[in-house]
Amino acid sequence: MMKRNGDIELHILEEKLRFLKLKIAERQRKIYVYRKMLPLKRTLDMEIAVLQIQFSQCTDRINLLEKKFVDPTGDRARLLNGKDLTPKEMLSKIDKLEFHLAEKEEKLLEKEFLFEQVARLTDRLRTRTETCKQDTLLLAKKMNEYQKKIKDCTHKMMALVAELSMQQALSLELQKEMRDKQEFLTSCIERIEQGLPLSKEIEEDWLKVLRDEDMHHLAVAERAMLQLEEKHNLMASGVYTTAIQRPNAYIPDAEATLPLPRPYGRAPPFKPTEPGSSMRHIKKPTIKPIEI
Q1: What is the spatial distance between Cα 44 and Cα 103, in angstroms, rounded to a whole number?
Q2: Closest CA to 130 of 122, 119, 140
Q3: What are 56-94's pLDDT values in tens digits?
Q4: Is residue 240 helix, strand or coil?
């Protein structure tokens, strides 16, 4: 038990010793820092002395300026020119000033009255202008409508004039053509009366008409032939074909049976195809005689 207490006290003493060592180290650090700051302290002391001297000089200067400011004598005082008026002169001057003031007030009242009259007139004119603005707006709208109608009418007139000019040109062309036809007709009548043949142009036109009629007849005949061919090529089932029809039935030759057509079935007779154009390159075979 005593040993245990001694260990505890020893541990406490060690802790105290460690704490004291830390304090000693802290004091040594502070001493080291203060020693480093010692030259700075000297310079700061010198700066403080200089600043104190400057401060004393500034205070002396301030005191001197305050004394000069308070003292009314000297250069600060400035005497005014002129003379002081007597009471009578002052009263007469006051009367004059009051008279001038009354005149100014009278003029001011006149100007205010004129201003009121002008304001009334301007109000009337403003109301009139407002009403005139509405009237002018209506007139402007009507003018715009009339101008639009005038423009539409001018466009229509221009279109009619253009159409009229076209019709006039067409009428001139027709009149010219009519004159030419009349001249041609008179010349034809004169040639017929004289017993002369008609002109080549009429003959060419007549031949052209005959040729057109022949072509029309040929076209009608070709159309009829095509219709006949279509009817001929149209099968009973409704299928159109141009192939050559082949027999699909035969009549038996037996006497015991009736002569009724029978279908070929799966084995219809073979029909060879016609030789093509390539057959001209093939020689015909020579038939050799058969020796027995």
Answers
A1: 78
A2: 122
A3: 999 999 988 888 777 766 666 666 677 777 888 888 889
A4: strand
| In the block, residue with structure tokens 């650090």 | 29
Q: What pLDDT does 174 receive?
A: 92
Give me the pLDDT at residue 58, please: 93
CA dihedral 132, 136, 139, 144 (to 10 degrees): -170
Distance of alpha carbon 243 from alpha carbon 246, whole angstroms: 9
Q: What mean pLDDT is reported for the chain?
A: 83
Answer yes or no: are the C-beta atoms of 165 and 173 closer than 8 Å.
no
Task: Write the pLDDT tens digit of every residue in 122-165.
Answer: 888 888 888 877 778 888 888 889 999 999 999 999 999 999 99
Six-digit token pair at 68? 């000069």
Nearest Cα to Cα of residue 184 among 200, 168, 173, 208 = 200
CA–CA gap between residue 201 and residue 125 (Å, rounded) = 90
Please, which residues have CB within 8 angstroms of residue 77's CB and are 6 or more apart in sequence? Answer: none
Furthest-apart CA pair in the chain: how many Å?
195
For the chain, domain boundaries: 1-70, 198-226
Helix ranges, the chain (H) = 2-70, 87-194, 200-233
Q: How many angstroms separate the Cα of 287 from the Cα of each of 30, 275, 284, 290? A: 148, 20, 9, 9
Say how far apart CA 238 and CA 110 lie, in whole Å: 121
Q: CA-CA distance, 99 to 245, in Å (whole number)? A: 147
